[in-house]
Amino acid sequence: MTLLRRYGTLLALALIVAVFAVASPGAFGTVANLVNITQQMSLLAIVAIGATLVMVVGEFDLSVSAVVSFAGIAAVSLFGAGHGIAAVFALVVIAALAMGTVSGFLVARFAVPSFIATLAFGTVIGGLTFWISDGATLFSGIPPAFRDLGRGTVLGLPVPTLWLIGTAVIAWLLLDATEFGRRLYAIGGNREAARLVGLPVRRDMIIAFALSAGLAALAGLLLAARLGSAHPTGGGGYLLSAYAAVFLGMTAFREGEPSVPGTLVGAAIIAVVSNGLTILGVPSFLQDLMTGAIILAAVLVRQLGRAGD
To answer: Residue 280 is part of which domain span?
Structure first.
Protein backbone atom coordinates (compact mmCIF):
# COMPACT_ATOMS: atom_id res chain seq x y z
CA MET A 1 0.00 0.00 0.00
CA THR A 2 2.93 2.34 0.59
CA LEU A 3 3.83 1.91 -3.08
CA LEU A 4 0.30 2.94 -4.07
CA ARG A 5 0.38 5.94 -1.76
CA ARG A 6 3.67 7.22 -3.09
CA TYR A 7 3.45 6.29 -6.73
CA GLY A 8 -0.19 5.47 -7.38
CA THR A 9 -0.71 8.13 -10.03
CA LEU A 10 2.49 7.21 -11.84
CA LEU A 11 1.44 3.56 -11.77
CA ALA A 12 -1.97 4.57 -13.11
CA LEU A 13 -0.30 6.41 -16.00
CA ALA A 14 1.87 3.38 -16.77
CA LEU A 15 -1.18 1.10 -16.65
CA ILE A 16 -3.18 3.36 -18.97
CA VAL A 17 -0.28 3.48 -21.45
CA ALA A 18 0.05 -0.32 -21.30
CA VAL A 19 -3.67 -0.88 -21.91
CA PHE A 20 -3.74 1.36 -24.98
CA ALA A 21 -0.46 -0.12 -26.27
CA VAL A 22 -1.98 -3.60 -26.12
CA ALA A 23 -5.31 -2.47 -27.59
CA SER A 24 -3.68 -0.69 -30.52
CA PRO A 25 0.00 -1.63 -30.78
CA GLY A 26 0.40 -0.53 -34.37
CA ALA A 27 -0.87 2.98 -33.76
CA PHE A 28 -0.65 3.94 -30.10
CA GLY A 29 2.57 2.22 -29.08
CA THR A 30 4.81 3.92 -31.63
CA VAL A 31 7.50 6.48 -30.97
CA ALA A 32 5.84 8.88 -33.40
CA ASN A 33 2.56 8.71 -31.48
CA LEU A 34 4.24 9.16 -28.11
CA VAL A 35 5.96 12.26 -29.46
CA ASN A 36 2.58 13.39 -30.78
CA ILE A 37 1.11 13.00 -27.29
CA THR A 38 3.69 15.42 -25.91
CA GLN A 39 2.54 17.94 -28.51
CA GLN A 40 -1.12 17.36 -27.69
CA MET A 41 -0.53 17.93 -23.97
CA SER A 42 1.79 20.93 -24.39
CA LEU A 43 -0.68 23.82 -24.30
CA LEU A 44 -2.84 22.22 -21.62
CA ALA A 45 0.24 21.62 -19.49
CA ILE A 46 1.40 25.24 -19.87
CA VAL A 47 -1.98 26.49 -18.65
CA ALA A 48 -1.94 23.91 -15.85
CA ILE A 49 1.53 24.98 -14.73
CA GLY A 50 0.21 28.53 -14.34
CA ALA A 51 -2.74 27.20 -12.36
CA THR A 52 -0.26 25.24 -10.22
CA LEU A 53 1.46 28.45 -9.13
CA VAL A 54 -1.85 29.80 -7.82
CA MET A 55 -2.77 26.47 -6.25
CA VAL A 56 0.52 26.49 -4.34
CA VAL A 57 -0.72 29.53 -2.37
CA GLY A 58 -4.06 27.82 -1.79
CA GLU A 59 -6.13 29.72 -4.36
CA PHE A 60 -7.79 29.14 -7.73
CA ASP A 61 -7.65 31.08 -10.99
CA LEU A 62 -10.83 30.45 -12.94
CA SER A 63 -10.00 33.10 -15.54
CA VAL A 64 -7.29 31.09 -17.32
CA SER A 65 -9.51 29.89 -20.16
CA ALA A 66 -10.73 33.44 -20.78
CA VAL A 67 -7.12 34.66 -20.91
CA VAL A 68 -6.23 31.92 -23.43
CA SER A 69 -9.06 33.11 -25.69
CA PHE A 70 -8.18 36.78 -25.20
CA ALA A 71 -4.53 36.22 -26.07
CA GLY A 72 -5.32 34.63 -29.41
CA ILE A 73 -7.86 37.26 -30.41
CA ALA A 74 -5.65 40.13 -29.24
CA ALA A 75 -2.67 38.74 -31.15
CA VAL A 76 -4.50 38.37 -34.46
CA SER A 77 -6.06 41.81 -34.03
CA LEU A 78 -2.65 43.36 -33.43
CA PHE A 79 -1.23 41.60 -36.47
CA GLY A 80 -4.09 43.05 -38.48
CA ALA A 81 -3.10 46.49 -37.23
CA GLY A 82 0.41 46.02 -38.60
CA HIS A 83 2.39 45.12 -35.45
CA GLY A 84 5.33 42.72 -35.60
CA ILE A 85 5.66 39.38 -33.84
CA ALA A 86 7.89 40.60 -31.00
CA ALA A 87 5.61 43.55 -30.29
CA VAL A 88 2.51 41.35 -30.34
CA PHE A 89 4.04 38.84 -27.96
CA ALA A 90 5.12 41.57 -25.58
CA LEU A 91 1.82 43.47 -25.65
CA VAL A 92 -0.33 40.37 -25.18
CA VAL A 93 1.76 38.95 -22.34
CA ILE A 94 1.97 42.32 -20.58
CA ALA A 95 -1.81 42.70 -20.87
CA ALA A 96 -2.28 39.23 -19.41
CA LEU A 97 0.14 39.93 -16.56
CA ALA A 98 -1.87 43.07 -15.79
CA MET A 99 -5.09 41.03 -15.77
CA GLY A 100 -3.58 38.51 -13.40
CA THR A 101 -2.36 41.33 -11.20
CA VAL A 102 -5.87 42.70 -10.92
CA SER A 103 -7.24 39.29 -9.93
CA GLY A 104 -4.45 38.79 -7.43
CA PHE A 105 -4.99 42.24 -5.95
CA LEU A 106 -8.68 41.56 -5.43
CA VAL A 107 -7.85 38.30 -3.64
CA ALA A 108 -4.80 39.40 -1.66
CA ARG A 109 -5.74 42.96 -0.75
CA PHE A 110 -9.50 42.80 -0.36
CA ALA A 111 -9.84 39.12 0.62
CA VAL A 112 -12.31 38.43 -2.18
CA PRO A 113 -12.60 34.63 -2.55
CA SER A 114 -10.54 33.62 -5.55
CA PHE A 115 -13.45 31.61 -6.98
CA ILE A 116 -15.55 34.76 -7.14
CA ALA A 117 -12.83 37.23 -8.12
CA THR A 118 -11.39 35.20 -10.98
CA LEU A 119 -14.76 33.97 -12.22
CA ALA A 120 -16.07 37.53 -12.35
CA PHE A 121 -12.93 38.96 -13.90
CA GLY A 122 -12.77 36.08 -16.35
CA THR A 123 -16.28 36.99 -17.45
CA VAL A 124 -15.11 40.57 -18.00
CA ILE A 125 -12.16 39.33 -20.06
CA GLY A 126 -14.51 37.12 -22.09
CA GLY A 127 -16.74 40.10 -22.83
CA LEU A 128 -13.71 42.15 -23.87
CA THR A 129 -12.60 39.34 -26.18
CA PHE A 130 -16.01 39.17 -27.88
CA TRP A 131 -16.01 42.96 -28.23
CA ILE A 132 -12.58 42.97 -29.91
CA SER A 133 -13.48 40.13 -32.27
CA ASP A 134 -17.16 40.99 -32.77
CA GLY A 135 -17.79 37.34 -31.94
CA ALA A 136 -16.08 36.11 -35.10
CA THR A 137 -13.10 33.88 -35.83
CA LEU A 138 -10.06 35.98 -36.80
CA PHE A 139 -7.47 34.64 -39.20
CA SER A 140 -6.25 37.41 -41.51
CA GLY A 141 -2.87 39.07 -41.29
CA ILE A 142 -1.07 36.33 -39.32
CA PRO A 143 2.60 36.22 -40.40
CA PRO A 144 3.94 32.81 -41.48
CA ALA A 145 6.81 33.19 -38.98
CA PHE A 146 4.28 33.44 -36.15
CA ARG A 147 2.60 30.22 -37.27
CA ASP A 148 5.97 28.50 -37.14
CA LEU A 149 6.04 29.15 -33.38
CA GLY A 150 3.22 26.63 -32.92
CA ARG A 151 3.99 24.18 -35.69
CA GLY A 152 6.77 22.04 -37.09
CA THR A 153 9.61 20.23 -35.39
CA VAL A 154 13.10 20.99 -34.13
CA LEU A 155 15.54 18.08 -33.69
CA GLY A 156 12.62 15.69 -34.06
CA LEU A 157 10.52 17.30 -31.33
CA PRO A 158 7.34 19.32 -32.02
CA VAL A 159 7.83 23.04 -31.40
CA PRO A 160 4.97 23.15 -28.83
CA THR A 161 6.73 20.38 -26.90
CA LEU A 162 9.86 22.52 -26.72
CA TRP A 163 7.79 25.43 -25.40
CA LEU A 164 6.43 23.11 -22.72
CA ILE A 165 9.86 21.82 -21.76
CA GLY A 166 11.20 25.36 -21.37
CA THR A 167 8.17 26.49 -19.38
CA ALA A 168 8.23 23.44 -17.11
CA VAL A 169 11.95 23.75 -16.34
CA ILE A 170 11.68 27.45 -15.49
CA ALA A 171 8.55 26.96 -13.35
CA TRP A 172 10.07 23.95 -11.57
CA LEU A 173 13.24 25.89 -10.76
CA LEU A 174 11.17 28.87 -9.65
CA LEU A 175 9.16 26.79 -7.18
CA ASP A 176 11.83 24.39 -5.96
CA ALA A 177 15.10 26.31 -6.17
CA THR A 178 14.30 29.92 -5.27
CA GLU A 179 13.32 31.81 -2.15
CA PHE A 180 10.21 33.01 -3.96
CA GLY A 181 9.05 29.43 -4.50
CA ARG A 182 9.66 28.54 -0.87
CA ARG A 183 7.63 31.58 0.17
CA LEU A 184 4.74 30.48 -2.04
CA TYR A 185 4.69 27.06 -0.38
CA ALA A 186 4.87 28.70 3.03
CA ILE A 187 1.89 30.90 2.17
CA GLY A 188 -0.08 27.91 0.97
CA GLY A 189 0.82 25.93 4.07
CA ASN A 190 -0.19 28.57 6.61
CA ARG A 191 -0.91 32.06 5.33
CA GLU A 192 -1.25 33.68 8.74
CA ALA A 193 1.99 32.18 10.00
CA ALA A 194 3.73 33.37 6.84
CA ARG A 195 2.42 36.89 7.45
CA LEU A 196 3.49 36.86 11.10
CA VAL A 197 7.07 35.95 10.24
CA GLY A 198 7.24 38.86 7.82
CA LEU A 199 6.81 37.25 4.42
CA PRO A 200 5.37 39.52 1.70
CA VAL A 201 2.19 37.48 1.46
CA ARG A 202 0.10 39.91 -0.56
CA ARG A 203 2.84 40.71 -3.04
CA ASP A 204 3.73 37.06 -3.65
CA MET A 205 0.10 36.07 -4.11
CA ILE A 206 -0.37 38.83 -6.67
CA ILE A 207 2.75 37.67 -8.53
CA ALA A 208 1.42 34.09 -8.58
CA PHE A 209 -1.84 35.23 -10.16
CA ALA A 210 0.05 37.40 -12.66
CA LEU A 211 2.27 34.49 -13.70
CA SER A 212 -0.77 32.24 -14.07
CA ALA A 213 -2.35 34.70 -16.48
CA GLY A 214 0.95 35.19 -18.32
CA LEU A 215 1.29 31.45 -18.94
CA ALA A 216 -2.34 31.24 -20.06
CA ALA A 217 -1.58 34.03 -22.54
CA LEU A 218 1.47 32.12 -23.79
CA ALA A 219 -0.76 29.09 -24.41
CA GLY A 220 -3.27 31.29 -26.21
CA LEU A 221 -0.57 32.72 -28.47
CA LEU A 222 0.74 29.26 -29.30
CA LEU A 223 -2.79 28.01 -29.95
CA ALA A 224 -3.39 30.83 -32.43
CA ALA A 225 -0.03 30.08 -34.05
CA ARG A 226 -0.83 26.38 -34.38
CA LEU A 227 -4.33 26.90 -35.76
CA GLY A 228 -3.55 29.96 -37.85
CA SER A 229 -6.66 31.60 -36.40
CA ALA A 230 -8.29 32.66 -33.14
CA HIS A 231 -11.84 32.28 -31.82
CA PRO A 232 -13.31 34.22 -28.88
CA THR A 233 -14.07 30.93 -27.09
CA GLY A 234 -10.95 29.10 -28.23
CA GLY A 235 -9.67 28.60 -24.68
CA GLY A 236 -12.94 27.32 -23.27
CA GLY A 237 -11.79 23.72 -22.94
CA TYR A 238 -8.69 24.42 -20.89
CA LEU A 239 -10.10 25.37 -17.48
CA LEU A 240 -11.43 22.04 -16.24
CA SER A 241 -8.69 20.02 -17.94
CA ALA A 242 -5.96 22.21 -16.44
CA TYR A 243 -7.28 21.82 -12.92
CA ALA A 244 -7.82 18.09 -13.46
CA ALA A 245 -4.11 17.90 -14.32
CA VAL A 246 -3.17 19.88 -11.21
CA PHE A 247 -5.32 17.75 -8.90
CA LEU A 248 -4.01 14.54 -10.44
CA GLY A 249 -0.50 15.90 -9.97
CA MET A 250 -1.16 16.55 -6.30
CA THR A 251 -1.51 12.79 -5.86
CA ALA A 252 1.64 11.95 -7.81
CA PHE A 253 4.64 13.01 -5.73
CA ARG A 254 4.13 15.27 -2.75
CA GLU A 255 1.58 14.77 -0.02
CA GLY A 256 -1.27 16.80 -1.43
CA GLU A 257 0.96 19.68 -2.58
CA PRO A 258 0.83 21.05 -6.13
CA SER A 259 4.09 20.68 -8.03
CA VAL A 260 5.28 21.13 -11.59
CA PRO A 261 6.39 17.49 -12.08
CA GLY A 262 3.07 16.30 -10.66
CA THR A 263 1.11 18.59 -12.96
CA LEU A 264 3.04 17.23 -15.95
CA VAL A 265 2.05 13.70 -14.94
CA GLY A 266 -1.58 14.79 -14.63
CA ALA A 267 -1.52 16.46 -18.04
CA ALA A 268 0.10 13.34 -19.50
CA ILE A 269 -2.71 11.14 -18.15
CA ILE A 270 -5.34 13.38 -19.75
CA ALA A 271 -3.46 13.51 -23.07
CA VAL A 272 -2.80 9.76 -23.16
CA VAL A 273 -6.44 8.95 -22.48
CA SER A 274 -7.67 11.37 -25.15
CA ASN A 275 -5.15 10.11 -27.70
CA GLY A 276 -5.80 6.45 -26.99
CA LEU A 277 -9.57 6.76 -27.14
CA THR A 278 -9.35 8.70 -30.41
CA ILE A 279 -7.15 6.01 -31.96
CA LEU A 280 -9.65 3.36 -30.85
CA GLY A 281 -12.44 5.32 -32.54
CA VAL A 282 -14.39 6.08 -29.36
CA PRO A 283 -17.00 8.84 -29.99
CA SER A 284 -16.16 12.21 -28.44
CA PHE A 285 -19.11 12.19 -26.03
CA LEU A 286 -17.97 8.83 -24.65
CA GLN A 287 -14.41 10.12 -24.41
CA ASP A 288 -15.50 12.73 -21.86
CA LEU A 289 -17.26 10.06 -19.82
CA MET A 290 -14.33 7.66 -19.93
CA THR A 291 -11.74 10.37 -19.28
CA GLY A 292 -13.58 11.43 -16.14
CA ALA A 293 -13.88 7.83 -14.99
CA ILE A 294 -10.18 7.16 -15.54
CA ILE A 295 -9.19 10.32 -13.64
CA LEU A 296 -11.40 9.24 -10.72
CA ALA A 297 -9.88 5.77 -10.83
CA ALA A 298 -6.34 7.20 -10.77
CA VAL A 299 -7.15 9.31 -7.73
CA LEU A 300 -8.92 6.37 -6.06
CA VAL A 301 -5.84 4.18 -6.48
CA ARG A 302 -3.81 6.78 -4.62
CA GLN A 303 -6.40 7.13 -1.86
CA LEU A 304 -6.56 3.37 -1.39
CA GLY A 305 -2.84 3.39 -0.92
CA ARG A 306 -3.17 6.01 1.81
CA ALA A 307 -5.95 4.13 3.55
CA GLY A 308 -3.87 0.99 3.71
CA ASP A 309 -0.91 2.65 5.51
So the answer is: 2-307
